[in-house]
Design goal:
Blueprint lengths: L1 H15 L2 H19 L9 H22 L4 H21 L3 H11 L5 H24 L7 E4 L2 E4 L6 H18 L6 H18 L2 H18 L5 H7 L2 H17 L6 H9 L3 H12 L15 H10 L10 H9 L1 H20 L4 H15 L34
Antiparallel strand pairs: 1-2
Helix pairs in contact: 2-3, 2-5, 2-6, 3-5, 4-5, 6-7, 7-8, 7-9, 8-9, 9-17, 11-16, 11-17, 15-16, 16-17
Length: about 400
């Protein structure tokens, strides 16, 4: 019977569908469903209905992991425990994004990472253009938020900072795929996009991070490296560990009695305050917990901003959310994945991915998108096949 099942799986793999095709089918479904959840289309849709598409995608990934992929028994145990932790986190928090992301991280084994990023870029680029068009045509709402007397438009996305985050991650994906041809013309193009996004969304963090993308990637991929350049690019791997830890400490020990912390909190739009409040009110759990958050996103959030602005409470930082909402165990696993990818690539003197993750970590200290598949495809490099971007090798050619 065991031999028969193996032969059957082999026949399915060779004749009907491959593990790669199954992965990209699931990836497409989840990218579309997760994107729609973050738009004003949700005024007309029920979240549970859309989430069923994500659950179906996760089901396909489980099939790929346990039938199409090949792991040893220790790896299968580790995978099963991780998926179980993600499942319990979903049940405890009623937030499915982390569970979906871990499904894709573990399901990306033997998939070329360049193909993953290219697929992510193509799908999300089209979706973003369509949603902006729909909002400008009045098919869906273009929510207008405000900071002081400055209006911040979201162009069909739930919130203006989410729109700028989509642009940030798309710019990251574009530069990752085209790092060899980055030049001053493309830098000016990205600068123009960045300026337009700032005028529309008035988002400071993503505006600054988009400006950093080209110089950081050019520095990381330059063939000519001085001692200073080598020191900087070799520092990305441990900065990707130290920065989240430092931000957690700053948040946990935040006090209005420290003028430096107060100024930093003001720069970060009060994120240290809300994070510290989260630690104080809810504490840290192993498996996650459901907490009451009231953010500005969506039509309901806009109504609250206008009528009850003091009711706002939302934990933005991905790393603080992991500890307070999703659970410490998943937080440790996430940090391990980031560290593993960064160290693995640095050992091979390939600094492209560590530099990308450095920018992702900077963003994730402020925003909540680290473990959302609709934004961040870069953690999928954990088990996928990462081409030798800087040091040659048979996989160095651009994926067609």
């Amino acid at each position: 019977m065991n031999t028969y099942l193996k032969d059957k799986v082999r026949w399915v793999n060779n004749k009907v569908i491959s593990g790669e095709q199954l992965f990209f089918f699931a990836f497409t479904i989840s990218l579309i469903a997760s994107f729609v959840v973050n738009t004003t289309f949700m005024i007309y849709l029920r979240i549970n209905q859309v989430n069923w598409f994500n659950y179906f995608a996760l089901f396909l990934l489980v099939i790929k992991i346990y039938i199409f992929d090949s792991f040893n028994w220790k790896e299968y145990i580790a995978i099963t425990i991780t998926l179980a932790l993600a499942f319990f986190s979903w049940k405890n928090t009623q937030i499915n994004t982390v569970m979906i992301m871990f499904g894709f991280i573990l399901g990306a084994k033997n998939i070329n990472f360049n193909k993953i990023v290219r697929h992510y870029f193509n799908v999300n680029f089209v979706l973003l253009l369509l949603i902006i068009l729909y909002s400008l045509l009045g098919i869906i709402r273009n929510l207008a938020f405000f900071r002081g007397d400055v209006f911040r438009y979201s162009l069909g996305i739930d919130y203006s900072t989410d729109l700028s985050a989509y642009v940030f991650y798309l710019c990251l994906a574009y530069c990752y795929l085209n790092y060899r041809s980055l030049n001053w013309k493309k830098f000016i193009g990205i600068l123009i996009i960045d300026t337009i996004m700032y005028l529309i969304t008035n988002t400071r963090v993503d505006t600054f991070l988009i400006l950093l993308i080209v110089p950081v990637i050019v520095l990381a991929t330059s063939s000519v490296k001085t001692k200073m350049k080598k020191f900087i690019v070799s520092s990305f791997w441990y900065l990707n560990i130290i920065l989240p830890y430092t931000f957690v400490l700053l948040t946990y020990y935040f006090t209005f009695g420290n003028p430096i912390m107060v100024k930093l909190n003001r720069i970060l739009s009060g994120r240290l305050t809300y994070g510290e409040e989260g630690f104080e009110k809810y504490g840290v759990t192993l498996f996650g917990q459901k907490i009451a958050e009231h953010g500005w996103g969506g039509a309901k959030g806009l109504t609250m901003m206008k009528n009850n602005p003091f009711g706002y409470f939302y934990i933005d930082s991905s790393f603080i959310r992991l500890l307070i909402i999703n659970g410490t165990l998943l937080g440790v696993i996430t940090l391990f994945i980031i560290a593993f990818i960064s160290i693995r690539e640095t050992i091979h003197h390939d600094y492209l991915l560590p530099s990308i993750l450095f920018l992702v970590v900077l963003s994730s200290m402020i925003d909540q998108h680290l473990l959302e598949i609709t934004y961040d495809p870069f953690l999928l490099s954990f088990l996928s096949i990462v081409p030798f971007n800087l040091n040659g090798g048979s996989q160095n050619d651009k994926i067609k």
